[in-house]
Amino acid sequence: MVQSAVLGFPRMGRLRDLKKATEAYWAGKISQADLLAEAKRLRLEHWKIQKDAGVDVIPSNDFALYDQVLKQSQDFGVVPPRYATSGLDDIDTYFAMGRGHQKGGVDQPAMEMVKWFDSNYHYVKPAFQDNQTFKLAENPKAVEEFLEAKEAGIITRPVVLGPVSYLHLGKPDHDQSVDPISLLEKLLPVYVELITKLKEAGAQTIQIDEPVLVLDLPEKAKAAFKPAYEKLASTGVDLVFSTYFGDIVHNIEVVPKDIYAVHVDLVRNPEQLETVIGALGPKTILSAGVVDGRNIWKTNFKRAIEIVESAIQKLGKERVIVATSSSLLHTPHTLASEKKLDPEVADWFSFASEKVVEVAIIAKAVTEGPAAVRDALEANAKSMNARATSKRTNDPAVKERQSKIVASDYNRKSEFPSRIAQQQKKLNLPLFPTTTIGSFPQTSEIRIQRAKFTKGEITEAQYDKFIEQEIEMNVKIQEELGLDVFVHGEPERNDMVQYFGERLNGYAFTTHAWVQSYGSRCVRPPIIVGDISRPAPMTVKESKYAVSVSSKPMKGMLTGPVTCLRWSFPRDDVHQSVQAEQLALALRDEVVDLEKAGIDVIQVDEPALREGLPLRSGKARDDYLKWAVNAFKLATVGVEDATQIHSHFCYSEFQDFFHAIAALDADVLSIENSKSDAKLLKVFVDSEYPRHIGPGVYDIHSPRVPSEQEIKERIEQMLVNIKPEQLWIDPDCGLKTRQWKETKEALTNMVNAAKYYRQKY
Ligand code: GLN
Ligand code: ZN
Fold this sequence. Notes:
alpha/beta; 8-stranded parallel beta sheet; 24 strands; globular; binds zinc ion
């Protein structure tokens, strides 16, 4: 019999119940006992969903109150001393590590959190001491959750992050210099102890995740697998060695031969199947990840079954498991909550609760033969066909336009020196021009009016009037502050991607399809369902109004094609480059329309450009950079030379990425920089970067107001590497999460600092 398995289930619950409970706990509104009870209720509910779906192998320890990697660190005794001595109990220490703690005399910032591979989930990076020791917690969560499920009558497969990945994904703590992988030998006994405890509790198999296998690994990390898995084999427990988000062909030699099972992601990389099968030990089982854990599309049963069948042909039914490609953490809870979706497109989707049913159906189809699930297969084929042939998927006009793109569509009319001269003539900006990144505080009043409008409690005319008043107020404030290039403040935008998605053909929206981004924070990405086009201008009305009430140049504000793509659920039936190109063409029209409406400066934000970078270096990365840069250029170069194009990036690690940013050919770049070393800006001198740059002069993530002196010092450091005539003065990012009071104070100091240097030079 071919078993079905799920690698992990989302934790938030149908209505983001976990978010509500943790936030209520942090706010002191519910007790710790209440929080734990709610978490337990959710775990049981999620196990039950999978059991009822007929899944054979149900995971446990995939749950976390904040982050599963952080919890593993705590259970292994990897708690930096500054948290261990805070006097907090275990749960509060865990939250303090995850999100910082500022209460009762304790003032501890959070640990570093970074993206989990190329997903939008963030994990807390394990931080090791030079003299790190490891000690298993008395009641490790993995064991507790296994017992909890067992008590409910479900024998689960616990999930543990494997030793090599755990170390490789960590770092030395502040001021420490330990190479994490060198801690392997000290760490392994803790794994042996944990696995043994799980075995004693009744676990038959354990999912041990080693996702780092999909990366380019240093030799030291590669060499760690052999000793690690020899040691873990001594426990005698059947381990499912699991990888996802990429192929493992380049690291295939380190996959343990005598392991019980190996899981691979066959949604992303079906072509790795043959190599992986060839490398399996004589008894090793293949766990075939054929149901996508990263996207919301219904599984194509025919294709998935073909893949599984080809594995069965080589290995036999007993040596194949049908599984999700990765944990379903990256998918929303259930499609059943989406009452407003057009039934035509709703039929194309499958969220976590539906995907677990798919896994069971595919396993049944290959075990008993297609007749056993005939109805499901037929319905699926019908749905696949409907999607492939739908008018919502295919727009011949869009394809036609794409086919007509020519090389000159990617270039500005003139080179930068000529452009900037024309722009300067028009804009007449002082040295060290000041500007902001786009959004101004999104006050509760804005949210109230938007909600009223969405609910139909106020008319469109009333809402538009309100937005106009907000814009006018923003302009007035900028005039008072003495900024040089204004923004309208984005009061009409709920979210920088959703706002555009709602105005483009080819997008669908959900009401409850939240996915966890980090801790209690969830995002609700819009879904690209078909060819994208722009039925009408999207931002011109607001920008035009802003120009009409402003005495200074007004910057139009758009979200770039790659960011729109990355922060949506993309289509899985056409390459992402095609979707980016369609978004670019739609934005190109918007850029040109803004220009026609008298907007002389247009900023196209690409904060997600870097995160789209493929996990491994080489061809995939080069290809990505090529199409991503092209998409940005296609979107922005339709303007006259005298129109100034800006772009913005919210990440400071642009050094290795610099060539891509430079290739965008934007006239002005604003980049997050206030928290990093200004020396990093050296790359601009070294590369003789010719265009303008505005490295952020203060951090906008905190309400703290930077002093004028601090900003001056920052500018001074920047001037070491950036020529005065190239330097713009701006904050790190948009100000929408800030309050007005601190925003005005900070910007006053920023403008004064710029004025000081203006006089000096
Ligand atoms: N223009 C956007 C804003 O100011 C940019 C946001 C971002 O870079 N994440 O909010
Ligand atoms: Zn930003």
